[in-house]
Write the structure tokens for this entry.
Amino acid sequence: MWQWLYKLGSPRHFYEMTTSFLPWLKGVTYFLLIVGLVWGLGFAPPDYQMGDNYRIIYIHVPTALGAMWIYVMMAVMAAMHMIWNIKVADMVAKSSALVGAGFCAVALFTGAVWGRPTWGVYWIWDAKLTSFLILFFVYIGVIALRSAFDSETSGSKAASVLTLVGVVNLPIIYYAAVWWNTLHQPPSELSLSSQGANPPEIWIPAFFTGFGLIGLVFVFVIMRTRNEILWRERRAQWVQDLVKQEEGRA
Amino acid sequence: MPKFQFDGLADFFAMGGYAFYVWLAYAFFFVVMGWNLIQPRLERRRILKLLQARQAREERNATVPTQEEREHA
């Protein structure tokens, strides 16, 4: 197990392992997403208060949670990069920033569109929404800071520090709706019986989209990290061989 | 087995009157996810092309005789 993890720290092993793993991950991910989205859009019963508008929740909640978990992953990678100077960790952190910013944008957009018919407004400066908007800006800041440096090493150091500072925002977002009386509701409790407020018919499709989106995060991050490896290791012999092989295939 | 909640496709697209909001949200979702899927693919192709061109250039340079070799010939 540790050896396996240790190997992932080598760019070449990361690249080779993901070559065989990625098609499987994609297959499972697309299956989960298609089942979850079709079920959520067409087969889950409408909410007794929100009608069919609540179907937006099937993409809003997982992308919002995803945006936060991607940040956690990015912060762990940034710490690993700073402490042990693991190159792959930095590449994963760089890839995560772009993916996380995208998830953040989807969560904000779908939340606003859901909020208009439900709350009567697209946007309101409540604690949950505001702290989430800050998360989006932190993502943008990390991406911009990295690209502002000509040197790759300085850029990744600066981005790592900013990433770790931005972690303070995460508990604020997560507990905002619990600590303060916000318009955004606190996390719903799921019920196993079909008489409860959130019966299985409602939340099971959310689990499909949720796990599907977790898979999708890994697909996106792995694809970007592989590109990053090819570029940064471009002078290594194994990349040179791989480039030659790809030429024969194209 | 869950059953289809709408009476036909037209009713499905109407989304109980929330069509604008539901489909706008899902459209944005698909645009962002689609971009995330396509962009790294294009990036990969770009990197491979660049590295291939570099390799070809280096091979060409290797076959050009150096000054010393030319003088010997």
Q: What stands out?
A: The two ends of chain A are 37 Å apart (CA to CA).
